[in-house]
Amino acid sequence: MQRQVALIKQSLFDQGYLDEQFMELEELQDDANPNFVEEVSTLYFKDSARLINNIDQALERGSFDFNRLDSYMHQFKGSSTSIGANKVKAECTKFREYCRAGNAEGCLRTFQQLKKEHSTLRKKLEHYFQLARQAGPKETARRPK
Amino acid sequence: MEKGGFSPVGLRVLVVDDDPTWLKILEKMLKKCSYEVTTCGLAREALRLLRERKDGYDIVISDVNMPDMDGFKLLEHVGLELDLPVIMMSVDGETSRVMKGVQHGACDYLLKPIRMKELKIIWQHVLRKKLQEVRDIEGCGYDGGADWITRYDEAHFLGGGEDVSFGKKRKDFDFEKKLLQDESDPSSSSSKKARVVWSFELHQKFVNAVNQIGCDHKAGPKKILDLMNVPWLTRENVASHLQKYRLYLSRLEKEKEIKCYSGGVKSIDSSPKDAEVNSGHQSPGKSSFVFSGGMFQKATETDPKPLASASLSDPNTDVIMPPKTKKTRIGFDPPPISSSAFDSLLPWNDASEVLESKPVLYENSFLQQLPLPSQSSYVANSAPSLMEEEMKPPYETPAGGSSVNADEFLMPQDKISTVTIQDLDPSAISCMKQQEFSSNVTNNTEAILRSLNWELPESHHSASLDTDLDLSCLNGDRFLANTGLYFQDYSNSPSLLSELPLNLWYGNERLPDPDDYSFMVDHGLFIS
Q1: Domains contained in chain B, CATH given
Q2: Residue B23: which region, alpha, beta or left (left: phi > 0; alpha: psi -120 to 50)?
Q3: I want to staple B396 with a disulfide (CB 3.0 to 4.6 A). Which of A65, B43, B93, B392 is the partner?
């Protein structure tokens, strides 16, 4: 069970879903905050859902205020770095580039991709944390190789 | 403890970020650094918190992008109002943004994702800022002095107060101790060295010995030591004390050159002596500190309010009252200082009102300095110079004049008080001012002119003298106090306080070598 958890985590890193920031979070986890990583993760997804919503609405309006969109995405990117959401972050960067280029089409496409990545990551992490809790608290704190 | 891993316990950090995830992470990271963390999701809220407790935080970390206020604006506010070091954060590492941060006065610009190791060293910004402020005051022309001050600051900062436990917070000790061990003296042996406390009496002996020998330049530590006849004192102690003393003297010289008053030197000479004599009459004991402390205490007690109101630059006759009452206690003839000298410096000498208020102001601010003899010189200085004053050994502060004796040296408040208390006439004022100048022992004309203009940023803040008194200790302190690294309960006991500065100043006889300091400085003022 524990090995399974470790493997899952390893694959998340290998596949580029997570970067070193996630490891940093794990190192912060201690007796005072035994579920720190999961808490942060939950917080991130809650907050990012809100941001995604904002961007969705802005895009739906169709007015394409690139400055505003860029600003939203800046926020989103910052947030995504917090848990090391690597792929999500990459999409954010792309989106911002399209914003600067004034490419509405590019923005829309990228945003769809971003939402997908975001959703994927959430599921994977939820699964991971669930297993980790089942396996025992120590596992989540262990660094992947 | 390894250098990179060190972080001072209890550094008070305010984190401002609209991103709740980052706020949570940063809080955890900072707590792991053993810092005291306050988080805030809104810039306005942050400002409110900061203003509420003006010296409640040592450093602010803020995100650049926030919904209610631009991070740079917050940075400006904090810098202007509170003069705290601010670190900016952003996911955006674009050069232009970073430059903007720097331009707005950010101490550092961290890129998200932020690593713990980056947070571990933020205390260095706090330290650096404090030292920078001292250097600014030292300003031009005192490069050697500035370095020395810095070194002294750092020693003082880092370990000077260790031997004196006057209510200093434990975390301050921790920090200082650690800093001392880790940064200042790699061998960490300094904390084991014996410390000499240069009390007033001791210093008096020292100065007497120096004067006895003659020109102090010829006086060597050994000779002085012999003359002093203090068995437990070592040549080494005397040597380092002499070094500081000489620096003080050389500053006085520079001061005089810069001021170029006509007859200034003479006036300075005469007035201190007069003050000395007179204060001697009043003084029950040998220690002028105690005496002056007592005197000032009384002064403080009698009329705090008028003084305070004076400081609010509202000259009125009430203000004059306190001086007169004090005058009865201390008879002092105004020194024969030419008004011209005075005129040259004070643009306002036309206004009698101003004259009246100003000396009182001096008195006020001077009284503020009360608890710390070493600070007495500051008198209307702005906070930075206050700190500088505090950082400097007492003998640097007062008495102007080339002929220095122990009394002058260590009884700044006496003279200044007597002068201030004197007739509110230009001569007294100029004398007072001269003393202030010399006591400032700073080459920073700007600071002095500022003091002339009676800008008392710190003292103006409060309406009551009590607070001012508090500030007096803390003004100089303040910068350091702000860091939570300094003695915060300073102003509790006057007698203790009168002893304090000496301890502070001289307590750290085992000042590390300049080498150590420069090492420390080099490594300490790290910030890339």
Answers
A1: 12-136 (3.40.50.2300), 200-258 (1.10.10.60)
A2: alpha
A3: B392
